[in-house]
Specification:
This protein has 7 helices and 4 strands. It is of the alpha+beta class. Bound molecules: adenosine-5'-diphosphate and magnesium ion.
């Protein structure tokens, strides 16, 4: 089924100028970038976006990190886009990520792991609408 998922290229990857390399992985694996924008997340945005983690010990560090520099928010579209993107990303901790995944290749630590991807179709819809309106999404 053709789906859409939210991806974020996180500050560590933007800072190292590897956004093109990451987008190439999506495009080489039949995930189309159908919306994309560079933003600086506010503290408020980060806290809201990651509110499911608000009780976790790493929450404030995570929000600090996600606001430490620009990120690229993007919508990826393709067959089974949600799970496909999660597979391309690899495990949360780059040390545990499979060879060839984005996090294995580029992640620095469990926090600075280069990319975000929605974890379910339901969350993808919520997360896409957090950053984009329907008119921002241009399928091709
Ligand atoms: P994922 O991004 O793989 O869905 P989670 O939803 O569990 O992972 O966590 C959200 C983000 O919080 C992670 O991508 C990572 O940046 C950060 N994070 C997760 N676990 C830790 C941890 N133990 N210490 C520091 N940061 C973490
Ligand atoms: Mg998650």
């Amino acid at each position: 089924m053709t789906e859409m998922t939210l991806s974020i290229i996180k500050p560590d990857a933007v800072k190292r100028s590897i956004t093109g390399k990451i987008n190439a992985i999506f495009e080489d694996n039949k995930l189309k970038v159908v919306a994309q924008r560079m933003i600086l997340m506010s503290k408020h945005d980060a806290e809201k976006f990651y509110k499911v983690h608000s009780e976790r010990a790493f929450f404030s560090d995570l929000c600090e990190y996600m606001t430490s520099g620009p990120v690229i928010v993007q919508v990826l579209q393709g067959q089974n886009a949600v799970i496909k993107n999660r597979e391309l990303m690899g495990a949360t901790n780059p040390e545990n990520a499979e060879e060839g995944t984005i996090r294995k290749k580029y992640g620095i630590s469990v926090e600075e792991n280069s990319v975000h991807g929605s974890d379910s179709l339901e969350n993808a819809k919520i997360e896409i609408s957090f950053f984009f309106s329907n008119k921002d999404i241009l399928s091709y």
